[in-house]
Fold these 2 entries.
Entry 1:
Amino acid sequence: MKISLITLAVAATICAGAVGAGQALATTTHQTAPKTLKIVMHDPGCHWFQLGHKLTTKATVTGRVKLVNFDEAALKVASRHGMKHIAMGKSLVVGRGSYVIMMVGQATDDNYLKLTVR
Ligand SMILES: [Cu+2]
């Protein structure tokens, strides 16, 4: 009787450990939803990052960020990995890196938006 109780206790400990490991694994593999950064149409400059009620040409974000295009044309997102496009009304999720965002066919004096994702 004594032996079977110990066996039960050991089995219970192993099970608890396995459940704990499973939970730890779940939290590390779970990706948090990316933050949203709107790019809006506003003159002068044509397009801006909208941070709350503030318009800015530079933004630094920690973690992945979802860029949403509220400009009047497609946007170009340039990084050292190449160029990606965001169509009007569409979005693009970007990870760590430095990006320069401009509009397709924009005037030379329109804004070049600088984004850093840490
Ligand atoms: Cu624009």
Entry 2:
Amino acid sequence: MLDRKPRVGVFGLNRGSTLAKNGRPAGLEFVAACDKNPGTFKYMKGIAEPDAVYYTDFDDFIRHDMDAVILANYFNQHTEFAIKAMKAGKAVISECTPAASLAECVALVEAAEQTGMKYMLAENYPFMRGCAEMARVYQSGILGKVVFAEGEYVHPMSSGEFLGISPGKNHWRRHNTKIHYITHSLGPLLYMTGAKPVRVNAETVFLKDHALELYDTCEQRAAVEEAGIMLIQMDNGAVFRISGSNNLAPHDNWYRLACTNGSIETVRGNNGRVILDYGAWELPVGVTESHRIYDAQWDELTDLAINADHGGGDFWEMYKFMRYLRYDEKPYFDVYNSVIMSATAVMAYKSALCEGAPFDIPDFRDRDIRKLYAEDRFTPFPDYDTGEGKTLPSNAHQDLFDAALAAREAAKA
Ligand SMILES: NC(=O)c1ccc[n+]([C@@H]2O[C@H](COP(=O)([O-])OP(=O)(O)OC[C@H]3O[C@@H](n4cnc5c(N)ncnc54)[C@H](O)[C@@H]3O)[C@@H](O)[C@H]2O)c1
């Protein structure tokens, strides 16, 4: 128990300042911030305490007197900073993704266990209104058991927008496959159902002409595919079909639970609305309509969440972090339920590289399993500063892409 507001520092101030803005009404106090680009410090104005201290170096920042840190630095570089923070005695809430390789999954789990520090993933989509309602209805038991579920995170953008938020040839967005940004599609389904992934197979979509266009207009970005689709066998027998961050129309996120007694899904284009269906021949006691579309509501703290970013999800994840820090209320996305999503993405990408072959997903609660993957550093992401560490292409059809580039060069000659 903590009998005061938790004192929190923010690392990475683009996304990090938005999280802090939503964290203030949730009961967090921001006493320090860190970004190597001091031009971002202004984003904390009116959010951080007036006497907050600003740093450009993480090793200085992490020594600041505070209870916890928000990690919102580069997508593929969260693990090393989460481990440093926990070793420095700070609780961590980390943006997605928790780990960029299986070796990082192992290291993160072991650091959380060895230090005993609190770790939570900043996965916000499960707490948007439609997803929260799907979780409430499913967990009431009225729909029976989940049989099939779908989750889509679709985020197309223009080349101009892409370049504006992807500075430098090693920036994570330029190497982000269509598989690895998995948490916004899979996270809500895990949170709703409590099921765990055990095996995955995946395919990616490569369109030669569009890939060449993306390569030309986005300064030779490495990730030039359109979509990644994963089929996941779950531990309760269900099958989930999810996307990574896909480049198709329209920009949206969408979820469906198809169950033994009925189904619930968000409305495409309005993820605060849901469609709830039962077979007309098996209406549950007290239910009079077999088909209903309605606006979902949160039960509590609605005024605080309603204007929060990402459909309210940003408020809720900060609120849950505050409750974890102050009252020790355990979040669903603890270190194990977080790394299982990274492990699913890594195995799905291996599958896509092997023409859709199935891969088992390691459960890192098991210490013997950890030994098998502690040195598995396969990743499509380079280190931002050094460019080192990239061991896989960012395109599961790299051979076709290389051939297309070569053919184009040959045609010019
Ligand atoms: N959950 C969501 O809805 C959501 C939305 C946006 C972004 N994100 C996640 O948040 C994270 C950050 O996203 P972003 O768009 O702000 O990324 P970004 O690349 O634009 O920003 C990262 C920031 O971290 C700073 N940084 C990186 N390494 C540093 C270091 N070693 N020392 C000091 N500063 C460092 C950079 O200067 C930069 O300002 C990513 O993981 C992304 O996936 C999540």
